[in-house]
Amino acid sequence: MDNLALLTQDNLQEDQVLETDIMRFVAIIGIVFWILFSIVKSIPFQAPEQSSLQPQAISNAIPIENEKQLEPKNESKNNTKDREPVRQRNEPKENSIESLNPINAPQSSEKNVKQRGLQLQFNSRDDLLALIHAGKIRAFCRAKATGFDLHFEGFPKDGNLNFKGTAAIPQELWEIKHGQDREWFLSRLDDANPSLKAFPIRQVLIAFTDKKLESNFVERLETLESIGTQGILSIYSKGKIRFKAYKTESKNTSDTDGGAQ
């Protein structure tokens, strides 16, 4: 009996110890949940509002960046439009009038060519050199290629023209576009500068420094153009201007004095 009583008493003690352990475990779990609940309760709930605003800020920023990228393109177009008139104002004015070399040039190849309009020529090579030497006209050649725009002025020397590079050219220029006068000028230029033969654009230009001679020439030219006359205007060393109609028209020859005698 004593042994049974002892076993029963031991079992009761073990049950009490187990119950005490369970209560302690439950208490610990309760404390842990209380701590977690207090932590969760203290966390702010404003993060979702910030994330919802960010896409709006990004979408608002995109058009601003696009506008900044487009502005330089518009400015570049406006700048090119503003620069073009300035460049055109600085360029010399070139009047186009065809020319034939007179006395010294054979005209066999030009007989079959139908001649039109008014042509400028000098009565002879000596008249041309005399006009340049007297300071009544100036002769220029222009050679232009990609990246190059060169001007040369001709000076009389030993019965010929010697072309030298120049940067200063008059604003009012007359271009000799055809004929033996033009070929003679370019041949003198090529003798001094053989490399210019390869330039695709080559011009022969004349500038009047004698204002009276220029005025008489322009007046005569405008008169003939107004009545539709076609022919050759020849300039002499003393300033005389002589007109000769083409053979296709009725023969007409008249003289005009110009410049200092």
From TrEMBL:
UniProt keyword Transmembrane, yes or no: yes
Residues covered by region (Disordered): 63-116
Comp. bias intervals (Polar residues): 97-110
Annotated keywords: Membrane, Transmembrane, Transmembrane helix
Keyword Transmembrane helix set for record: yes
UniProt biased composition (Basic and acidic residues): 65-96
TM stretches of this protein: 22-40
Name of the protein described by the UniProt record: Uncharacterized protein
Annotated organism of origin: Desulfosarcina ovata subsp. sediminis
